[in-house]
Amino acid sequence: MTTPAQSARMAIVIYSLAITGVLIVCLILAQPLGMRFDYGQEQNLRLIDIVLPTFFGYLGAASHFLFNANRGRDVDPQNVGMMRLLVHGPFLIFIAAVSALFLAHYLSHRPLATNEPRIDRMDFNSLSRYLSVCLGLLAATVSIISSYLFGAPPAKDEVGSGS
Predict the structure, then answer these.
(1) Euclidean distance between the first and final Cα of the chain, in Å?
(2) What local confidence, expressed as pLDDT, does residue 163 receive?
(3) How many helices (H) and strands (E) does the chain have?
(4) Rounded (10°) CA dihedral 22, 23, 27, 28
(5) Which stretches within 29-155 are classed as H helix?
(6) 120-127: long-range contacts, CB 8 A cutoff, minimum separation 24
(7) Nearest 5°: CA angle at 12, between 82 and 156?
(8) What's the maximum distance between 2 C-alpha atoms anywhere in the chain?
(9) CB count in 10 Å sphere of residue 96
(10) C-alpha to C-alpha distance for 112 and 119, rounded to whole angstroms
(11) What is the pLDDT along the chain (163 residues), one digit of tens a residue?
(12) Which of 4, 96, 128, 151 shows a CA-CA span of 20 to 30 A to 12?
């Protein structure tokens, strides 16, 4: 039977693999897809540099967990609902926000008809700044949770001390 902690670990791995794969493919195919990046400055690759280390960290922790005899912690039954929310919520918000961000970037660079109101183009610095804000949500939640789920459980002398 799968424990709630193990379900959370699986969710972190699945989200991390899916987001990593989608972002790598989309940013590599950005130019043919019509995204207006400066390819001379390798802006699409710079976005990969900004985003992927977060997900690689989660996947690295999970990989280490598989071969570590000192398995991660379980979650108290009364906290299972909150843990699920804190694992799934940030990933879902990240996916929605990054999708909206890339759509806004794309639409801000499309040619406008003469009767459409002028819109300011989203520059690369704004795009990368918004992307960093989206990553901040994951750092504030999922990074902390994954350190407990994939990290070593407390030492036996720490468990009874109440600290």
Answers:
(1) 30
(2) 46
(3) 6, 0
(4) -60
(5) 43-67, 80-108, 124-140, 142-150
(6) 121/36, 124/37, 124/38, 124/41, 124/43, 124/46, 127/47, 127/101
(7) 70
(8) 73
(9) 11
(10) 9
(11) 788 988 999 999 999 999 999 999 999 898 888 888 888 899 988 999 999 999 999 999 888 888 776 676 788 889 899 999 999 999 999 999 999 999 999 888 888 888 877 778 899 999 999 999 999 998 889 988 988 888 877 777 655 555 4
(12) 128
71 Cβ neighbours under 8 A, 6+ residues apart: 65, 152, 153
| pLDDT for res 1 | 72
Residue pair 57/143 in contact by the 8 Å Cβ criterion: yes
* Tokens 């693999």 sit on residue: 17
What is the amino acid identity at position 114? T
Q: What is the per-residue pLDDT for 58?
A: 93
Left, alpha or beta for 96 (phi > 0: left; psi -120 to 50: alpha)?
Answer: alpha
